[in-house]
Structure formats: C-alpha cells, structure tokens
Queue: 2 jobs
Job 1
Amino acid sequence: MLRELGVSLLMAGLLTALVLAGLGGREGFIPLTSSGIGGSTAVRGLGNGTQVGFFSYDDPVEIPDLEGYSFNLSLRFALHAAVVYYVPKPLNASRPQQPVPRPLGANFTVTGVEAYILSPADAAKVEAAFDAGLTGEALRLAEARAVARIPMREAGGAYVGHAAVGPGSYKVVVFYRYVVSIPGKMRPGKVFAKPMVDASISVTGTVSPTPVQLFRSLDVAGLGAVLLGLDWYLNREEYAGSWPARTLRRASSALGRLRRGRGREPPPGGGLRGSP
Amino acid sequence: MKGYAGKLLYRVWVYQRYVHGTLLGGIVVALLILVPVHAAAAVLLAPTVLSSPGGGPGLGFVASATELLLVFITVFMVASYAGDLSGGGGQLFLSQPLSRAGYAAAWLVATVATPCLVYALSLALPLLIIDPRLLSALGLWNLMRAVLEVAEWGAFLFLLATVSRSRALVVILGLFAELLLPWILLLPMALFAVVPGTPPYSVRVFATVYVVLYPSKYSFFSQGGAVLVGPGAAAAEASTLMAAYAVAALLYAKERMEVV
C-alpha cells in the first residue's frame, strides 16, 4: 500500500507539473464564457449634432480568482442602422387622414465606439443617467468609474476590442457616436434612425504556472518519493536483482515472512533470497 | 489476544504487499493515462469550475469518461483474484499460516480499494496542485461519486468471484453490470419521463434504487423530485451496500471457501 501510494503521489506530482508547463503560456487557450445578443439600442442627442447610442450587455461577466490564470475579454459589436429622412407632406384639409411622409435615404456615419467595463452597480448608474436623458453625465460616469476603457476599432464590418481583466464581476456597456447626413439640399424634415446591434462577448484565459504551483507539484512528488524510499528501506530484498528474479524474490519473501511471522531475517538455507 | 491479532494483521499485510506487487504494473499504466487526462481537464476547466455553481458539469463529463478505465481495471483485477483462487496460486499461500479471510481481505484491498484510491488521487491531486480552492468548489460528492460506484460494484464482483471462482463470469457480469445495465435500466424510466407531472411512486422507488446502485448517474434525476433521497443519502446507502458485499465476501471466505 505504501509503495502504491508513493507511486501515485510521485506520478501525479510530476505529470501534473508537466501538463501545466506544457499548456502554460498559450494565449486564449482556455475558454471561460462566450455569449451573443442582439437588439435595438437607445439613442440620445449630444447637443452638437452628434447622436450617442448606448448598449449594455445583459449578463454580468464573472471572472474567477484563480492562481496562475489571466483573462482577456473580447468584444465584437456590429451596428446595422436603418436610417431614413422623412419629408412631411403638407396637410390637406379636404383629406383628414394622416399624411404619409416620403422617406429618403440618409447616411449614417459612426464616429467612435467605446466600451467600458464597469462593476454592475456602476453600470446601473450609467444606464439610469442615460435613460434620464443625461447623456453627458452618463459618459462622464462611465469614464470615471470604468475598470477598463476599450476603444473599439473597425474590422470586418464590426467593431472589435479587447482588454485584460482581473477577478470580479463586471458589466460591459458601449457608447457609440454617430452623425446622420442628408444628401443634397432638402426641405426641413425629420431624421429617423434605428440602429440595431449584433454583439458578442467572450472571455478566454491563459495559464502561466506560478512557482507556488510548481512547488506544490514537487511537494506531492517529493512526498511520493519519500514513501517509495521508506518502502525500499523496509523491503530492500524485494528491490534487488533483475525483474524476473525480483518477481520470484517477492513471492519467496512473502512466503518466508508468513512462515516466520514477524522479522525480516533470511530463511534457513537462503532459498531465493540470496544474491543472484 | 493483542499478540494474536497483531500476527493476523501482519500476515494480511505481508500477503497484500505481495498481491499489490503483482498488480503494480497495471496501476502504473492506469496512472500514466489518468493523471495527464485529469490534469489537462483541470487546467482547461478550472475557471469554469470556480465560476459555475457546483463546479459546472465539465469535469463531471471527463470523470465519467475516465471512470470507464477504472471499471476495466477493477473488473480485470477482481478476475485475476478469481483466477488465483481457481488456478492454484491461492493454495501456495494458504498452505502457509494465512487465514482464508486474511487471504480474501488482502485481495479485496488490492483489487477494489487500491484502484479506487489511485483513481481518486489522480483526480484530486491535479486540482490540489492547480488551486486548492478547486477541491472545495467541486465538492466531495462530485469528485467521488464515480469512485463510490465502482467500489460498490467492485465489492459485489469480489463476492461473486469468491463464491464462483470463475474469471469469465466476473469479466462478463462485471462489464455488463457497469457498462450496459445502467443504460438499459434508464429506458423504462425514460418512458415515464415523457409524461408530464410528478412520476408515480413506484417509478420514484425504482429511480431511488437505481441511484443507490449507480450513484454517479444521480445528476440524471436531480431535478423534478424523481428520487426519494438526496445525494448524501444515496452515497451513504451505496457505501452500506459496498460494506455489506465486502463483509459477505470475507465471511464466505472464512466459513465456506474451498481452494482447489
């Protein structure tokens, strides 16, 4: 039992250290969470002709506190805006029905997308400020309270960004600025913009074995080696000689001990117990 | 009395050492497979284990797969005990001052307890090395239910081997009971599962017996009140059954076992 326990501890310690070293340092190799959502976003005017859109990822992201692990949060944010410019028809007194506006094409230009990683409480405050129409205050709060600010860059028809995050619970909110330009000289009308969002978030981890982890594996392996050493000290005769001889020696040793009771002295006549 | 008991225990200890020595090769091969698989799974799933309630299902799936190896090891080791009984190996040692119960106890430890212990260590030690908090996040039940199931069936097969001394019977019945029977028994319960509402009492009793026999499949019934006992009670009943099989095997060995 001592020998089997020793072998188990020795092999578990050494093999785990090898696996940790082998898998260590590979970027984004360990998946933690991945989710995607879509929908419309709230928009507000910023006052200088620029509009601001706001989007909050539904579920909080939970990053565990784990020894030797680091995590990277990646965002993908695709905007699909339906934008039209309505030119109202003059009211006709003879036709009481609502006049049907004439839609015209308009350009929707995104001027910047930024994501903020916030604690769930701060994210709720930012969302409340935005919903109350305090766009500037919401932006200021997000800037001030953010754990990380991710300027998103355009890639493949979407905006992407990533940031390293430490342990904790986070919510991600995105602000994007856009302007709507009406082509040519048009009569006064109303812009209708409904940006739709297709967003995804993923967190991946990288393990870099720490000295403490390696010491722990060596501790386990060392304990196994001590147990094996103790077993060798107590049963030296079983370890001597070549493999087939050792098998016979083990049987002969067991038979001899059973015959004699306690003690490890060689049986009379030597038998298989002598040196080969 | 103390000296006599000490002598008996010493003889069992000497013989179990010999039996363990003959089975050590299989244990080393098993460790060479189990530890890297469990360690790699632990590295990859450690973040999920800590961030999901109850440790998440990931590591449980890996343990279910590696449990198959434990099943094979245990079945073939118990079969080698049956072979020792029928092949004359036991005669050699029982001609020495070693009791039949002591002989059976040594084999029981070597063929059932040791593989289960080695498997449990191969699962728990990588988690301990990566981060000790992983062990408490997973919990004893999630870690040990596969071990408990194999130990329970291993003790049953040991009793069967002691009574029948047939290697073939142990291998065939062991693989059938541990690999096929749990899925066959799920079929009638699956028929009741499609009916909405709480299943009839007889089905719940059947499901409870099933989780006591196969504790590692408890998660199949953890929702909807399909079983009458919680995981702790199922584990306790499975342990009692295991102990009953082991004691029955030792008593049979002491009173009735014939070595030919």
Job 2
Amino acid sequence: MPAKKHSKVFQALCQESLRQLVTETAGVENACLVSGDGVEISAVLGENVSPGRIAAMTSSMHALGAAITRELKMKECRSVIVDGDAGSIIMVRLPVAQPELVLAVTCGHRATVGGALFAARQHARYISEKLSETT
Amino acid sequence: MGYEHIILFAGPVGAGKTTAISTLSEIPVVSTEAINTDFSISNKATTTVAMDYGQISLEEGHLIRLYGVPGQERFDFVWKLFQERAAGLVLLLDESAKEPLTDLDFFLDRFAGVLNHGVAVVGITRSELSSSKSLSACCTRLQQRRLKVPVFEVDARDREQMVVLLTALVSMVQMRETQLEAD
Amino acid sequence: MSMSPLAPTARFGIEAPARAAAAAPHQHALAGALARLASDRHRYAHVRVRIADVGTLELDFNEQSFRYDFDRNQLPRCMHSQRYVLTAILAHHHTPAGDTHRVGRLCDLFWIAGLASATDLPVPPDTPLKLVQWPNFPQLPHKIEHIQLCGMLSAQPMSLREIEEHSAFDSQRVRSFVHAAMVAGFLERCSETEALFAPAPRALPKRGLLSRLLDRLGLLN
C-alpha cells in the first residue's frame, strides 16, 4: 500500500499511462511506478509478480545507479538497465519529481531495449507533467 | 595478498546504521539514501534503500569492509546478499523504539545466516534517554536464546564508542577465525 | 527511621579509624569496600553509601541496580574516597530514591570498583573461568587489553594460568582484569563439565587482524 498519499486523480492517470505502456509497446510485460524509498505507487503487473518486492528492488537498483554515477562524476543517473537471459528490466527516473519516482518496465525478447527505453522515458515524462499539474 | 573481512550493520530503521558506518569509515561513505515517504515506520527525512559502504584499510592489504543494509523488511533481499560472506554482524537497536526486544528477536532470526558461522555484537543507540533497561533486557534475551553476543550502549556518532564496539567484534572475529583454522 | 548497620567489618570511614589504620592503604577506599560487598551480595537487599563531598549511592541487590545523585563522571574518582559510610537498609525501612536520581546496573558499579580495588583472587589458577557477560565497555572505564581478553574468553572458558599463557599480557594485567570481572559477576567459575566440552584454548595471534586494527587506530600499547 502506498505510504505517501498521491491524489486519486494522479493515481488514476498513472494507472492509465502504465496500462497503455504495457498494451501498446511490443514486448513490454510489466510496468511499475515506485517511490525512491521503494514503495509502490501504481502498477500493471502479470501474475506471480510481487509489486512490493519489485518496488523495493527497483529503488535499490536505481539508488546504486545514482551512487556509481556520482562516484564517477557523471552527473545524474537517468536510467538503469538490467540485461537478463530472458529479457530486460529498465528503470527510468522521472524527471523533476521530488521526492524521487522511478518507472520500472520489464520486457521480453519481442521488445528491443531501445524501443522499451524510449517508451518508458516518454511515459515517465508524461507522468512527471501530470504530477506537477495535480499537486 | 591481503584479506577482506566483511562487517554487516543491520537493525531497524533509524537505529543509526548509516551514522555508525560514517563514524568508522576512513573513506567517505558510499550511500544510497532516498527521501523517506513511509512515515508509518519512521519520521526520518531519508532512508537507506540499497546499502551503505565504508572501509578501514589495514597494513599488508588487509581490509575491513563495512556494509549497512536498509532496515525495512521490504529490502530483505539485500539482507540475504551479504550474510554468507560476512564475518561479523553489528545489530543496532534504538532504545527509544517501542519494542526493542521484538526488534532484537526479529533481526537475530533474519540474520541467523551470519550468526551460524560468524560473530555478532548488539549496539543500543539513544540510550542516553533512558536508564539501561534495554541493555539488561537484551542481555537476558540473548542468554535465553543461548547466544554469546555482547551488548553495548553506544552513540553511533561517537567515534571512540564505535571504535570500542568494533574492537570487541573484531576480537571475536579473530578468535573465530583462529578456531576455524585449527579445526 | 531506624536502620540496621552493616557488620563492623564492612563499615569504614570516620567511625572506624583504628581498624582502618591496620589494613593496607587502598583497603580503606570505597572501591575495596564495594568489592567486598559484591562478594557477599546475597546478604543484603539495600545498601546506602554516603560519600563525603560527592553524594549518595543506593544499591538495590533485588533489582540489581543502583541509584546515585551525582554526575556519572565522578563514579571512578569516588572509588578512591576514604570518607564514606555504608549502611544496610532493612527491606521494610527502605524508601526508594527519588526519580531525579540517575540509575545504573549494579554490575557496572562493581566493575568500576573492581578496577580500582586491590587485586584479590580467591580462585585457584587452574579453575576454568567463563565469560558470562561482556562489560558495557563503551560506557565503562576500561583498557584495550580488557576487550582483547574478553575476546579470548568469548571462545572458551579458560583458567587464570591459561589466560596468562595464551595472552600477550603480563600476570599483573591479567589478574587485574580477572579480579574486576569477577567482582562484577562478568566472569564466573565454570563447572568441570562445561570445561570438559569446551574447545582447547587458543593463543592470541601475535600479528592478527585485531592488532592490525588497533595499530591503524593508534590504540596499540
């Protein structure tokens, strides 16, 4: 259950955006919007995928990406991509969101990483804009 | 060729794990802090979401690596990552928490992997606010669980106190390693 | 309020100068009196200690705690005081100390007393000793070797002779630690059965992880 209370309007917009992302982007199977501290905000997930664990793991991965980016003085971490044998997990930081929000997307072989990354960034930008409008 | 010794810092949110590693580490701590949005667990402004990393370099290439893990249960996958490799566990408890003994039992259970092959100390933080009740209660509970684990009251910001805690832990790590070599 | 005084052997200070003159100087100090009280702890429920120019200690043997009305930093110093009065309080005459008093564990007080009192080891050198509890070192006066010795004893019970043989420390330092730890109850005699099943004692490595760490931290003697 989300800890921070985002407005119902915002949550509905997120849910719709994630649903579009999953249904309209070839190969994208799951999408989850999480807070920087690992709490699920909104999700469109297949069966047997635990939103709580995905949320926590996404925030950890993103935080490690941010740490290594800082260490190497490469400014901000925009996304982290995990390349698995059976697909990829793409985690994109929402631009301009405070506190931080991260969009995680999983895709199988039908997707290209580039295509899924592009779609994830588009939706991340959209959700960011809606967040500004609804708060 | 030196040796690595991994010390894990665990405990509930707000107990002082990140602070403790900052106090001990000789390098700037690599941290993974995020803004806290879950106020049901803690009022803290930020919280660790992956790990904290610090280290102490010793001569001849020996290295003590200090890893701090998040306190929330949703990050328990991180807890599992380090247990097999950790030589010692620092379990920090917050004296001002509602039920420090429940926290003690919970984390001893979840970090049994370290206790099986390594050693541990318990550090009770924020004890200046009370009268050592948790110290006695923790000692009793550890005796009931037949665990030989020292319990100390520490201020995680105080380098002298944290050095004492680390020295105690390392003295036990050394004895354990000496025993394992002999077996 | 009438109070039952302690037996004369335990009552020093202004009222027993003749007896005080007969013993070695540090025997008169509060530390020695507390150390003897600790070895006889089952006799008392409550003991009050008034220390001239410092304040009052109230020892509660039932609760295993003590209360005091002065700054904690003064505890080690007041152990050397020779101007104090110890009084045992009967249970039905005992009035609990006020809430403004500081509270501590009795074992901690006895550790401080043990460190400051003459080393007196009634235990035979070959009797195995086990570490029941570590002293709360970050909050108590201590030396680095105390931590190292506890580390050794955490692995198995050891006799005084074995501790001296396997540690790098001279007899005086080992005995001082053992005395303080036994006065406080952190170290106890071990049963022969327990000792039988314990692993064989291991020596402290000369240049192990701990000495490297202490060296790095600038704590090696």
